[in-house]
Design brief:
Layout (H helix, E strand, L loop, with lengths): L2 H32 L2 H29 L1 H15 L1 H13 L10
Length: 105
């Protein structure tokens, strides 16, 4: 090989190495952006939003197919969430004496 051929091959190898470094640097930059807390939080929010939409659509579909079951489930959840106020109301009524009605003639 001549000196000129070696120089050309060397220049070509250096150019390839520089391109590879540039690609690697770009990949690292992309990875750093993806791993940033803001990007991770945004990805998580989008994922949760998509799952929430899927869950709501599934619930609506289920309610259309089985309205009685859905109504019972909603009522049960409502009673579960309102159990404290319901219990307080029942305790107050049990503690309050009933008014006396009129006497018999």
């Amino acid at each position: 090989m001549t000196g000129r051929a070696i120089g050309t091959r060397l220049a070509l190898a250096q150019a390839r190495a520089e391109q590879a470094r540039a690609r690697l640097s770009e990949t690292i930059g992309t990875l750093q952006h993806r791993a940033s807390p803001q990007a991770l939080a945004q990805d998580m929010a989008e994922s949760l939003k998509a799952r929430g939409v899927e869950a709501v659509l599934g619930a609506v579909d289920s309610a259309r197919r089985r309205p009685a079951r859905f109504g019972i489930a909603v009522a049960a959840i409502g009673l579960l969430l309102a159990r404290g106020p319901i219990a307080r109301t029942l305790r107050r009524r049990a503690a309050t004496p009933l008014p006396k009605t009129g006497s018999r003639p």
